[in-house]
Amino acid sequence: MRYLVEPFIIGALRRGRSVEQFLGPVGSPERPGVRYAEVRVARTSYEVCVHAFEDVGHEGFVDLDVFPPFDQEAEEEDFGRLLGTAEDPQDALVLAEKVTGAVRGRWVNQGVVQDEYSEFVRAGRPSVMSADGWPWPDLRTGS
């Protein structure tokens, strides 16, 4: 089971683990990138971030953690845009879904988003929807 049901999402966050969701392509054909949303634990709250990378991978290279940031001005060790915070994990999920267009049924444990990227690459990097038919969200509109 790749995708987490809601009690497992909340449980992971309460245990201090991040949850992530692959959001698909960003950029242009001339400068392709990919992005994913993350909900992570901060000291007394939960942070909602979006990470964007240059799409430099291939079927044998899917480690998003070593891809260069899409925003070339971002710090190499800390690139991810903080979109908001919430005091409760449920509220953080609602916020993440509102501001990124993420879908409740597509959250995964930390690190599994690379598997999602791998499928994206194997499917030929579809620009409109995932290989299994989910439309990519539009970060500008959150839907």
What topology, given as strand order, has the largest sheet?
4-3-2-1-5
The DSSP helix count reads: 3
Gap between N and C termini? 25 Å
Number of strands: 5
Order of helices and strands: HEEEEHEH
Describe the largest sheet.
5 strands, antiparallel
Proportion of helical residues: 10-25%
Tell me what portion of residues adopts beta-strand conformation.
25-35%
Mean of all residue-level pLDDT scores:
89
Query: What Rg is obtained from the alpha carbons, in whole angstroms?
Result: 14 Å
Outline the secondary-structure elements:
Layout lengths: L5 H9 L4 E9 L4 E10 L4 E9 L26 E6 L2 H12 L7 E2 L3 H10 L21
Antiparallel strand pairs: 1-2, 1-5, 2-3, 3-4
